[in-house]
Amino acid sequence: MKNTDIQKYFKEVDDIVSQCDRCGTCLTVCPLFGVKDIESSSARGKNNIARGMIQGVVKPSAEVLDIVNFCLLCRTCVDNCPSKVKTDNAMIVIRQYFAEKNGSPGIKYKALGGLMKNRTLVKFSAGTLKILRKIGMNTLIPHGMAPSEFTRKQYLSSFAGPAALGSLAATSPIDLSNKSKVAYFKGCGMGMMFPDAVEGTLAILRTLTEPQIIDNMCCGLPHLAHGLRSDFLDMAKENISLFEKADVIVSDCASCSGTLKHIAAHFTDDPAWQERAAAFSRKIMGISEYLFQVGYKPQHRVDVKMTFHEPCHLGRGQGVRKQPRQLLTAAGKFIEMAGADNCCGGAGSFHIDYPAIAQSILDKKRINIENSGAHIVVSECPTCLVQLNKAAVQSGNKFKVMHISQVI
What we know:
Structural class: alpha/beta
Strand order of the largest sheet: 2-1-3-4
CATH topology of the largest domain: Glutathione S-transferase Yfyf (Class Pi), Chain A, domain 2
CATH architecture of the largest domain: Up-down Bundle
Shape: globular
Number of strands: 8
Strand content: 5-15%
């Protein structure tokens, strides 16, 4: 007999998990199953539990919530599944069910959501981290959440020599139409933790156009992922309104661009916002995706080996794979490392919630970076950059970590 109380929340979940034929392909690729070798770590195990909840044979307990939360949402399972079962979407809906059932997603996620929804607090946090970096106290912030940036100026000084520092950035040959109004979407993580990369992004965009700088809201991914759907929808509506006059919206955070591209899917049953949300989603581009499309050429080519860590939200989430690699090939000696698209273990707050597991996943990534022989590992996601900075320190600083905007 089906659990009707749960089923009213789980129509979408039922449609997803019923497609799982339990073949076990996900077990061979799931980063969590590779570290914690138990069935419930895998997509197959989670889908079976969801199916059991809908059928009323598994009770919605705290233990089940722990299993649902123990997911990177990295989509590795989806990418490799013969039926493309969207287990990540099912886990998000189940988390929402538990948040509503319990009255809250928990103090930690509620506090995080409150911070990310408040633009004043986000700006204050960014300013505080900037001061801590200047006085060398950023390392006191736990979980590596305030890494020291290897800036573009340091990069050029170290690898390109002084002559490159004085050269002007070449203007792109692409002549954008006056109607092509390009706006920049600044992610919370980028603004707080990687301000030099943000400046790099804006400097590049200004060689192509005069980007609109809008005081946007958080993309809402932390809220959507942790049962704060109402907050997610409120922020989505505000962002849709804020960027209505833009033709193209560029973000240098893969998590933001990935989330914003799928905003329309959350308004299909809302006649007042359906068309506006769809138009908004169509405008979104990641920074490497945009630069590749307009024919941007890197400002300097340096004699340095670099590799690319592909964020889950960029490659599997958006299908953006060749663009950053081709930009890096034009900027230096690009090397494709083994497992470039393997999750680094960051996954939003996962590395804070499960530090030991995240470290085991990161160890594999660090070894792959070291084996590539690269001097620089580049990415396009702030959480990935946080993780990779940890790996760099643990490697004895054998490599540096940079955002793609700082390199090209």
